[in-house]
Amino acid sequence: MTEAPLWERDAELSVIAEAVDALCGGSGAGRVLVLSGEAGIGKTALLAEARRMALDRRCTVWSARGGETLTSVPFNVVRQLLQPALVSLMPDEAREYFGDWYDIAGPALGIAEAGDRQPDPQYVCDGLVAAVRRLARREWPLVLLVDDAHWADEETLHWLAAFTDRLDDLPVLVVVARRPAGVSGESARHLDAIGAKALPIAALRALTPDATAGLTRATLGEHADTPFCREVWAVTGGNPYETVELLAKVQDSDLEPVESSATELRGLNQSARGRGLVDRLEGLGVDATRFAWAAAILGTRITLDLAAELAGMPLDEAERCAELLGAARILTGADRANGEVADGELEFVHPLIAGAVYRSIPDGLRTAMHGVAASVVTASGLGAAAASRHLLEVHPDDDPELVEQMREAAREHLAVGAPAAARRCLERALLEPPLPEVHARVLYELGCATLLTSPATTIQHLREALTLHGLDRELRVDAVCRLAQALVHNDQLEEAVRTIDEEVTRLKPGPERMRLQAVHYMWEGLHAGEQDAPGRSRRLTELVKPLTGRDNSERALLILRAFDATTRGENAEEVVELCDRALVNGRLAPGLGWTDTEWTFELLMMLGVSYTFADRLDRAESLFTEAQRSYEIAGWSGGHLALALAYGGYVHRRRGRLRDAEDFLRESLRLVDRVGRRLPMHWSVVCMLIDTLLARGHVGEAEETAARYAFEPPHPSTNVTPDTHSIRGRLLIATGRLEEGVNELEVAEKMAASRGGHNTVMAPWAGELARALAASDSRRAAEIAADLRAQAERFGTDTAIGEALRCAAALETGPRAVALHARAATYLEASPSSYEHALARVDYGIASRSAGELDRGLTLARSCGADGLVARAQEALDTLR
């Protein structure tokens, strides 16, 4: 006969069976099932049946369960889930098996010591995905069961959403059980993402009267009469869990299942849940009740010794209480089917019981027990992070020690990539509140904890920290710099500059003041709407003149001056000389590395960009490759890694490796999308990608990308590389919107005039505008081309001069055009830009009607991946032949 909890679940069991069959049948692709329903509706029973089916087919099965009181414990559920694999790996074996991901995923899983740097939570998630994918290939076919996912911690749900998104080539079945409501924020978003990947299964419904009658007779015997069975359904509402518990009470009470006994069912049902369950618990005695309360406070890893210590009783008394609670179907031995558990480890029979027992503890006593639990957990050596979930429940009481415990817990959470948990700890520390001399530091730490994940939150806390006493001068300057960085990434650039300036006025000359001055010029130099760019450039030039690069503040100013000279199109040799002076023996100085926190990564991006547009692409590529490697090692896979990939990709674009450039930029865009939407960094990456797609001749894809990311006015307040107005104008002209394109290029022209100059490669509006106006206004086109050539010669790179000559040639005819095309090809052959060289060769071949030049251009275009140019060159060759 069908097991009692599984009545009227044939459809769900069929879907589970088909999924297990597909998994074992070698289909290759993984699947996701989500079982949704209210409490007690039978989700856990279906998971148990899924386990049985999978084990019968010799699958590996790992399972885990969320907990109502454990949602604040980061990585709690994923650690449970992977426990069987983790305990089977020796430390050296785990390091070898996980490879590069060991230092990233290991601390989150509790099998490796955390490093010194705060890892990016997204990279920790990626590391967990990679680690589990490797384990899955070792253990296949693998079934992962997650019960009560609505109570899983946010970090686990982040991982699970990412993992289920990558099951196409993995022999894994993931079955998730959750309630349909009661989740919000990031956890809700992750659960929705998991559900979107799942096979369709209707939400579980209550049992019908007929099914309840069948279940009743299967449990109590066929002599259970119809009125009795109908009353069982009426009392329980067809809830399977309540029905099973009620029938167990009927058996325990020797109640006859007949109509005359039906009136007693309601009282029995009340004893199985809520207040009735509490009354039943209290009936077991004061000691058993106190032990059950201690178990509910601990929530997970309920061992006899910890529960006994928390309950304040000797171990033999704890054992007696555990036996009583086991006989009463309240506690049971922990499930050993999912890996090793400690001797005597216990768990509640059902989450509904755990919740009822926890809520039955008087409020004041519950708070006090959490405080004791924190002490017990700390004394057991589990660390501040493990104790912090209990301290979160303790009422504020001006306790300096609690503040320090929460600060330490926050540091532990940050070290494993759980900034949300760190934020909760520090917010709780603020409620205590901290001592006046500590308060500002807690706010500072809270701001730093959210810097990688929530710029708006960072702004709020750092602003408040700066209004208080308690930060020494060096820490205060660091707080101001971090606040300015958060403001920039929140698209509040003007306020960032103003914040820096206000602090500069407070400081006397010295390293801290110079650091702030450097940060001021950095953010001001990125301001697209800057009012006095020439004046700022003059002031920066004067400030840098006496500097030799003796410390990092001076080196930062040298980089900023190099970037300023690059954007204004000043002499490229001087740009390179400034960049080289900012290095130490050709390398980044200590304390000025990609992951060092004193100086923001934007500064080093400026260094790489300056080398890029000065035609020193080898140095730029080396810098951005080092950035990518540094961020991967440090576990930063959010905006930092995204921009490292983007600028590295744009170096490929400048070299003419268009396929590689597109790959880098698409991966960068994928990472940026995970950070947020409509961020300034979106503009940079999208602009570079559109420029690359247009170079490839993929105009439709460029237009689609622009539409998807709203690459249109209003433009961001920060300058973007390459110039957005220039690239958008090029796109509009390529898609046949000539007038709109000209308007956009003229905006770029006006902005260049306000800055007192421009880099003709970084902001290529002049060449595009001259070509666009050639037919309608040849005189103005010629003037623009002449100015372009003068500006390019001022900058002095082969790329800039070659491109200016190519533009001039496009406006000429006859021998004059051929001569200019020849000169352009010569300059661009000497440049590192093989795509621009290919363009020049094809143009020269067409102008001179030379099949040899066209063949050279065609070969170059093919090697670059410039499909549009390949078609153009081939068409010209076909015409000649």
Automatic annotation (TrEMBL):
Keywords: ATP-binding, Nucleotide-binding. Residues 7-175 form the Orc1-like AAA ATPase domain. Signal peptide: none annotated. Pfam families: AAA_16. Transmembrane segments: none annotated. Gene3D superfamilies: Tetratricopeptide repeat domain. This is AAA family ATPase. It comes from Streptomyces vastus. The lineage of its organism: Bacteria, Bacillati, Actinomycetota, Actinomycetes, Kitasatosporales.
